[in-house]
Amino acid sequence: MTTVPSPPAPPTATRPGVVARTGLYAVLAVNAAVVAWFFARAGFASNALIVIGRLLGLYGALVMAFQLVLVARLPWLDRRIGMDRLTSWHRWTGFALLWTLLGHVVFIAFGYADGTGTGPVGEIVDLAGTTEGILRAVVAFGVLLVVGAVSARSARRRLAYETWHFVHLYSYVAVVLAFTHQVAVGTTFTSSPAATAYWYALWGVALGSVAVGRLVLPLWRNHRHRFRVSAVVPESDQVVSVYVTGRDLNELGARAGQFFLWRFLTKDRWWQANPFSLSAAPDGRTLRLTAKAVGDGSAALRHLKPGTRVFAEGPYGAFTALHRRRTDSLLIAGGVGVTPVRALLEDLDGHAVVIYRVAAERDAVLLGELRDLAVAKGAELHLVTGPPVPDRLAPRELARLVPDIADRDVFLCGPPPMMNAVLRTLDALGVPKPQIHFERFGLAG
Hints:
The chain is of the alpha/beta class and 445 residues long. The protein has helices at 16-42, 48-70, 75-81, 83-113, 119-130, 134-151, 153-156, 161-168, 170-185, 193-225, 296-299, 338-347, 367-377, 395-401, 416-428; strands spanning 228-234, 239-245, 259-264, 274-277, 286-292, 310-316, 329-334, 352-357, 380-384, 409-413, 436-438. Helices cover 50% and strands 14% of the residues.
């Protein structure tokens, strides 16, 4: 496939990921201080337990809003941090949210039960039946407990992604219920016009981010670009490449190394979205994905017909040349993880070394294209074959193949066990972490 990639940006001392993370931390810290200030301005209850409970509730609301921003798939954040890391942060802040809200419920229950003789459980039941907004809060907390339970790793491994995602959607119901609870009984919310305006603005930004990133942008992009399958090319018995065309693809902003959530609008698969990386650098006319048949969704790609309409969400991912720190690079791919690596090789300037790890040469997807690209780019290509043990990419072997590895950016993509092993090797060889770039493609975190 002949491409005309845009000139890659030169390495820069400014790390986009650091800028984005610092910005997120700063925004969170400022809002935490603002919440504390409004809380203090509203005055304190006579019962210390109620004071602590109310403060925990406010910080629970702040964390909930922050969670929404993390999974809103805003392009600026996604290209600098990556969907995998944003999703992971969302998961861990979710558990922090559960503990914060649990503390809110416990302190409020014991605080209001103090001196009444009804006990904390009885007090919650009484408040739910007599005070507006409390019952909604109890339901919201129950929903979040269920979502948290299915998000635990032991439960997540037993659930299909579609099932997990369906259950997770109920967290938006919990968000709405929690907000209405805050409006109904939040003393800080109504303590002053400034506090009311702040909380409305906070929730507006959080919910607006989700609406824009998850709904408005995908709908607008698909309406504008009108994606369709133009060709389906088998690469081997198990691997197929799908070419997608559309209008004004040069204005899509896709970069080599990124991925889309592809939804092919056939009668039996229109509802299923799968993440596949671009396997060639975008040229403004065509997008190409290459996938191995490991499930029903990827196996069905072979039977797509040219002209099939496509609903594509993206581009997503921070596995791009935007994050380069050095002029030269090392690209390490395992199995079908070669697809974004092959695209990156087109986009990178400077000297590149490519290491492709497979069990046998027959498993090397797109090997012919890699060889042609390596010749055209003046890159070194090493095909490393053999069983996982002994490790063919152990420190000694990798240092032999790439003696100047510590002076290169390293882009890594492959199966999780291989990636974990290579990351340990890179650490042992003293490769600075800012020069190591990888993404883990797990939508459920």
